[in-house]
Each structure stands twice: as structure tokens, then as C-alpha cells.
Write a structure and sequence with these properties.
- By secondary structure, the chain is of the alpha/beta class.
- It has 2 domains: 164 residues, Rossmann fold (3-Layer(aba) Sandwich), CATH 3.40.50.300; 127 residues, Zinc Finger, Delta Prime, domain 3.
- Helices cover 58% and strands 7% of the residues.
- The chain has 16 helices and 5 strands.
- The radius of gyration is 22 Å and the shape is globular.
Length: 342
Amino acid sequence: MNSVIGHEAVLNRLSSAISKGQNSHAYLITGPESIGKNSVARYIAAALNCENKSEIPCGNCSQCNRIARNVHSDCETVSVDLDGYLHGDGRKRTVITIEQIRKVIRECYLKPYEGKYRVYIIQAGDRMSEEASNALLKTLEEPPDQVVLILLTSVLEKILPTLVSRSQIISLKKVGWGELAKGLIQKYKLDKRSSEELSKTCNGKPGIAIKMIEDESYKKWRHDALDQAEFLAESGSYTRFIYGEKFIKGYSADRENSIALLNLWQEFWRDILMSSYGVNDSIINQSRIEKISHYATEYGSINSAKNVRILTSTIERLQKNFSPSLTIEQLMLCMPTLTCKK
């Protein structure tokens, strides 16, 4: 079984260790957003419970199938998004709470219902409250038998250091576009040209490729986001300032979406910078190659590089909880405009 796209070396090491009974009681999977952390976590869960003795996970037995379909009673996901449902009040929260972790701890001491191991996948482990982190730490100090905890995070430094020290760290890197294209051909039966173009667009992140294939709403979001990047590239400072006010309101409503938007703009300007140096093979957004080449000529390498740096700084400041209003206003006013080059 390998429903994971890329990360073959990591998966081989995990399968080998688990088949020898050398699995860890806790894993901490790190890496950028959309890199495949959740897929690797489910791969571990399947390997731990697989009924096949010669090749794990096999992908064919009932254990592997139920984990793949997310209906296995011993494989549970804990996340911020599920919080309102667990509390029964429907309110959206911003952290994984102590109540959620207490529920995990209570169940940890029960025997697996249908598999060999109970597996808990804690998504966005960096979003656990301090109380939740400390409660989980006590469990990891004396881990129950037949229980494996898997924490996922894109921001390792936000995980309690003592939790990190008690976990086996699995660091996922971006997948080479050739390896990613190969995986897309195998999983989705894409032709060679389509898989290669999509792989370059996704910048080594399998999760983005899967979304672009399976999720029409994501494709529209990405298309609209790039349209906005082009709009800002052609706008003057005043128009950008007015746009920034709307962006700040959107940020207040959905912080994660807004940061994702900025990441895509950063990627777009990186493409323009690469084009300004004539390195077109490294351009991610191949479908926008004509506009990217145009902006590369109009802005030049110096202003393109400045835009990349400003967007990088903006994302970092927002992630460190700087004032959104001041940060976005500074972005809109400091990005070079077409008139800067003339």
C-alpha cells in the first residue's frame, strides 16, 4: 500500500521499523502545509494495524481499507475543526482544548476494539492549548501499551519542547517535481504532460496537487488569488491601499485563508523574479507564463526581489501576531509599482 505521494525513503524506514516491532509510542511529523503529513500519519496507522505479515501496510486487508476510508474505530483524528462538535455547542474555537485531550487520555487505557493499536492523529499540534499540551505530556511520560500518538505541525518551534523530546520526529521535505509527477500518474492516471505541469505548479506539495484535481472550489480559489496578484501588480499605491482595507476585513474573518493568499502571492512574485533572470524552467505557475514574463520585463529583477522580500516579511509578522492593520498597510504601501521602474 502507498496512497502517499512522494516521501518514499521516509515510508520505507517506517515500514521496516514497524515490521520489526520497533515503532515509537509517539511520532511528531513536521513539514510545510500540504506536504502530506496527514497521509504519512495514516500510513503509520495502517502499518501498525495491517494483517499482512510480509508487506506492511498492504492496502488490501480490512484494517488498511478501513483506515484509508476513515472508518476505523481505533484510528481517530483530533483537530481544531472538530472542537465545536465534540462540545456540542457548535462554536468554532481556535485551539485544541484540554477537554479534547482528556478524551484521548481516557480512551488510551482501553484495549483496541478492532485492531492491534489505537492511533490518535493530532492535527495542528501547535494549536494545542498549554493545558492540553501538559496533559498530553503526562501520558507520554508513561505511554500505555498498544497506543500510538501522532502529532502533526508546520511550526515545530510552537510545540512544547518536552513533547518534542519524547517523540520520534519525522521531517517531511518538498517532493521533487519528477517524483510528484510519477505519483500523480500512478494515483490519478494523468498523462505525462499534465502531471508534469501540475507538479511544477504545486511547488513540491502533494496536498495542493490533490486539491487541484479533486476540489473544484480550491481551483477557483487559486485562480482568483492569482487574478488578485495580477491586479495588484498593475495597480498604483492608492488602489492598493483601498484594496488593503478590504484584505484586513477578510483577515479578521479568516486568518488562515488570508495567509494562504499571501503565500500564493509570494510564490507568484518568485516566478516573476525567476523569469527576470531567464530561468523559466523553475516557474511554478506555468499557466500564467505570459503575464509572468510581462511583469518580469516591466518590474525587473530588483523590484521583483523586493516584492518577494516584503511578502515574506509580511507573512512572518502575521504569524508572530503583529498588528494585521499596520502589517497589511505597510505591505500595500511598500510594494514597488510599475511607475517605480519608469
